[in-house]
Write a structure and sequence with these properties.
The chain is built from 3 helices and 7 strands, in the order E-E-E-H-H-E-E-H-E-E. It is α+β, with helices and mostly antiparallel strands. The strands form 2 sheets. The chain has a 5-stranded antiparallel beta sheet, with helices on one face. 17% of the residues are buried.
Length: 126
């Protein structure tokens, strides 16, 4: 950080992005993480599969390297989105998935967004 007159300039690197962490090729792996009882997570997992199947495949596939992974660990479920290098629409898709899940299951807890490159969770503000 450096001072420039009355404005403080914060250097965030060449990509301008702090989160999520990018790989050297510019790709990322990130996704929303929900928490709940196992039977509820079973429902969410099936819902997410149906949602993704119903999305515009060409648009979704143009953004991501591979189909999303659904990872279960204890009382959490994470949708792992593997965005192509320098792809910008990954966040739009992640927001859409979160919104679609919230419409159907508003009582489900969105824990946050997991960055698989840096292995860090960014807590949700909900």
């Amino acid at each position: 950080m450096r001072e420039a007159g009355y404005v403080t300039i914060l250097d965030v690197g060449t990509s301008g992005r702090r989160w999520p962490t990018t790989r050297p090729d510019g790709s990322i792996s990130v996704g929303p993480r929900w928490a709940g009882p196992p039977e509820k997570l079973d429902e969410v997992q099936e819902l997410i599969r149906r949602l993704i199947e119903g999305y515009d495949t060409a648009s979704f596939d143009s953004c991501f390297r591979v189909p999303p992974d659904l990872q279960r660990e204890g009382d959490t479920l994470t949708v792992v989105l593997h965005a192509k290098p320098d792809e910008r629409l990954w966040k739009d898709w992640m927001v859409r998935i979160c919104g679609d899940v919230h419409k159907v299951m508003p009582d489900l807890t969105l824990v946050g967004f997991y960055d698989f490159v840096s292995d860090k969770l960014r807590p949700s503000s909900r």
